[in-house]
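thread: overnight batch results

M.L. [08:02]
morning all. the overnight job finished for the chain we discussed friday. pasting input first so we're all looking at the same thing
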Amino acid sequence: MTESDAALLRLLETLGQRGYRFVTPTPATHARVVARADRRVARDLFDILGWSLPFERARIDAELLALLDAGGALEAMGDGLWRSRLRVSSLKDALYLHSAWPTEAEDSVFFGPDSYRFADLIEAELARQGVPHAATIVDIGTGAGVGAMVAARLCADAKVWMTDVNPAALRLAAINAHAAGVAILGVESENLDPVEAPIDLALANPPYIIDEGARTYRDGGGMFGGQVSVDMARMAVRRLAPGGRLILYTGSAIVRGSDLLGEALVALAAAEDCGLRYRALDPDVFGEELERPAYAEVDRIAVVAAIFTKL
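M.L. [08:03]
and the structure it wrote out:
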């Protein structure tokens, strides 16, 4: 671990000891809140590390300021103001480093309401059915490491992997895992080749929004944002052990009443000899996206769970 990584690890540990908690909202909600007249400059730690507001150095104590500085997370804004390049959010009893708002860079590490729902889905599915002793678990496209960390804490004897194409994500996910006290193997890869076979449990929370900038962390590709989910599911189910599962959390654009993603996943399950349980978790999310021309034919975006089981 580098000195800057060690500083960020200490930052998370210190925040945890102080009882810091912050629930990250959707980008649209975040924008509305920080647009308020009294939210232009940070007033407290939550404004600094949660709402990504510029701050005067006097607004944060010397210990935390030094850790942010040593971790390379401080950015000078001019006029005596500074800004943290990272946010810290809480999920259950763990803290997660991720990118500051707004997440505009190609290598942004995203965390938001989907992270909370994904964690709940994993918990529910593992409560419904556990994994074998010494199971192999992989979180595909791990981002801030939510899937890997939730699974690792629930399956103490499992060998847990996390993959991502973004080295910035793997860096923060590794720090998050260290802070949570769980051992996870991180690999930079666009496929599952580095992961030991067979896989007992695969986890995936792929992007599902049409992104005009084609940013990897956000763009779900063709099929109105559903193609990356199909591709990731196909890659995962082909590596599952008999009886192994894929827990896929994603979004589906409903087009004139048709669930195109659901239809594609049903076909995939049949082709790959898998059982499939598919359901909507929320019928309508990110409604503001429908104002963009790319969604002209879309009725709504639903959040869905697809559980594949290798027969």
